[in-house]
Amino acid sequence: MRVLKLNFKYFVAFLLIVSNLQYGFSQKVFDFEDQGLDWSFKNSSYWKVNTEQSVSGSYALKYTVPENLTYEVPAITSIDTELTIQKVRTAIIGDKTQIIANSYEGTVLSVGFDGAILWKNKLSGFMNHDIWCADLTGDGNDEVLAANADGNLYCIDANGKLLWTFKTNHQNKPPMYAVCVVHDNGTPYVVCGGLDLSIYYISATGDLVKEIKSSTYSVEKPWGDNQPPSFVHYANFLRPVKKADGTEMLVVLGSNNHMQDRGSLYFFDVLENTPFKITGIEAPTVIGEFKVSDHDNDGVQEILLGTSGHHNTMSTIRFNIIDDSLEAYDLTKLGFGYSVTQPEFINDEGVEKYMFLVGQFMFLVDTDLDPESQEKLETKYSYNDMWKDPVSGKIILASSESGGSNIHIIDTQITGWKGAYEELKPKGKLEEIINNTEKTRNQLANYQKPESERDPLPVYLMTPDIDSGLSKTTADHIIANYNSPLFLGGSHMSVAEDWDRSAMENEKYKNKRDGRRNYTLTQQGAIDHITPWYTGKPGIAYWGGHGNDPYMFQRSTTEQIIDFANGKKTVLIYPELEDHSDDFAWVLNDLFYPLANYASDKNANIFVRTKHNFWQGNAYLPMWSRLLSGEFSNVFVPSMEETTDKAMDISIAGRAGIWASGATDSWGTRAVPDNPSFDRSRQFSNQRLPNHFLRHLIYHMANGAQYINNLAVDSDYISILWELVAKGALYIPKTNEIVSYSPVHLSMFEPDEHYLLEGSSAKWSTYYNSDFEDNNPFVFSRQNATWMASPVTSWDFSSYAGGVKDRRQNYLPNYPHGLVLITPPQSGAYVDATAPRGSLTSHLHPLYQNIMKEYYTDGRYYYSADKTQQMNADTYASVIKNDLKDSEQLIPLTVTGEVAWVVAQTSPTNLRLTVIDGGYLNPSEKKAIVKFQSVQPTNMKDILDGKTFDINSPSAVEVTIPCGGFRFIDITLSSPLN
């Protein structure tokens, strides 16, 4: 342990500025908090304000160091920024190194190693995909460069002021994704690149030097269906690498698919238009990190590439730039999760080693990459980024992926740093979330549902982990004392039925198989494998098939399993049913509709766990008409797996609209570790505290979701959700109890083909075509992988209806005018007058009976009810936006702020307002403004903590939502709502 012993008899004086003094009575009050530093009052007896000082000024702050005080330098220093930090870098400013931090919101901060927040710049308010620091002006101070999702590159000076902005000439700008600085004969050049498939050289003053289109040199080729153009790529990384002679070259890691393509390394001499060398990359999956090192001190840097993906694909590739050889070091035994491998070359207590950070694990390996030298450390949480300060060698960690706000500085040269890392427990927002959840759990223990409320509806927990710990205790108590939620049995299956498909008429699906499964079971073997799961359970949930192979089991096998259940619940999960070809129409008629008919009187469900725009797209194709009609409303359950997607705000409107229309009696949701993975090449998706899941699920369940399909991360933590349901604090409404729907709804015609393809093209990142984008505005736009975290257009449904600003992780949208349902047509030439579901208003609360207003779309255009008139999205959106604003006065209340919210009627004179912190991965204390519209409240009270809200100004009632939290508020009305 490195120990600093202070045995001074002297003191340190700190100058105070007189203008910052506050006067009260006859005393002078010194407000140190206004100085911009986190002043600590611990050991306050050591501090004294006096008038004796050795420098100019009227007052000084004297700190007297006690005799024989021993101060141990900590191995880890944590700094609370109050923001969720996603990227960290270092910069030289003056004669000091400062930490440059980038928050989830795109705010750039300069942070001293002493914890002082020196400056902040919010920039555009959109995500920064990459940050680079370098001295462009030659004054000894580094500038900060930010590649922003709005398509621009921002340059910030050493004081935090915007120095210049580089803008491409595109009207619809895709995100800027990568940035670095290279030098040619001492002259610095900024190089940036984005999803517009070009890289740009920019001068130190922000002027364009040249553009190099990837189409002039790329070797990347796509594969499969619905391919983007060949021989183009985007810059996954741009980095300077030193040659043997000490000069720099530019290396571009070009890729065309953020989820599957490893890409190629393109080596450029600075300012040259074509690479002098191109090398493919052999790796288990896509690349999510690019670092350099010189492990053998030969003056030639090697490239370190870290993978991004599932934990079974984690690896670091060391690439030799001289002979193009590579060595891979695979990281194993990581458990389930999704992360980025971040390699670095460090000094481990005097010994040079490689550090590989992946999820909650850190690996230390000798420079020869000998697996026998490996040392594996594990800590509680995972972190959003890691950076090594090149001056001190210290490692800097960004905030915890679970919504933390700390930056952590690790001195790997201090003995004991490894233990400190393993015991690291972040403070700040993460600690606040944990404390707030525990406070809510304690309040819930004393809550009793009012007699005036009905009993909770059944909620089906389809994949719970209740084998041990608090989760088991909680589940056992609920099972013994409550009727909901219900804990279903089931298990993951790596096997499927091997049955004779030779008579199958469809060649495509006759030959389809899921490569993740072994087809070894006989029919009886499959039945014997599955039916024991019913024992001691109210039912089971398992995969009946998959989009890769819906026929994992022949229909008769599934029917026999349903028969065995003898009335117990059976939920057949069918993930990723994306195919909308004639082949899949055949599957619906051969498998799904006959199975739905068989299940309709046997308490069995088909859980349609689809992706992308399905419930506001594919579901409106003719092949799905029997589901949409409500013929099998008690069988089909709309759900989603929204990994890799960027339009979760729309999918809630789509599923809720299907359910509210009467097409289905229930709907479902899912929370799994890769839910945040909208950018698969940056999968920092290993949140160890599933608070984001908790709030996402509360929002969906408050909107009526009853089928919950989760993959456990921390079941002890998430078990509070089960208690909320059991005790009725989280009110699960029927369709006719929700009163927070906007009276304006959007009805879907058969979807536009390009809209369908755009929404399902979530992997290829090279679709950008400026001419097409400039001339084809869509109602639901910017959903393919070109637009990761980009701003939504002002005319997009997400913007004017959902209150959403970007294509990112919008699981908790605000919908300031009420949730805008996306439904089947209710009037006009395309209404299905014979549908068993009946009309939309027959399923809604009576207040909606005569106030509904319908608009029509195919996802691309708006239309008249008979489809004879077609309106462009960019010009017609304002009509609907104005109608939304006017119509909000017809519902009981609306809520604005960075929150998600739902209102349901619980008795004739009571409403339940559920309001939730809307920061999915960047939680914080939020302010919500409740505006009462068509009702008169007499009381407004939180049902858990008992707080009563002031309703004297009913148009602006302020509600504070705890960080990572939620409130359930009972509102008493002056008269019944009917």
From TrEMBL:
All copies of domain Lambda-carrageenase middle, residue ranges: 498-866
Coiled-coil blocks: none
Organism: Wenyingzhuangia fucanilytica
SUPFAM superfamilies: Quinoprotein alcohol dehydrogenase-like (SSF50998)
Domain Lambda-carrageenase C-terminal: 894-972
Any Pfam family matching the protein: CGLA_C
Name of protein: Lambda-carrageenase
Gene3D superfamilies, per database record: YVTN repeat-like/Quinoprotein amine dehydrogenase
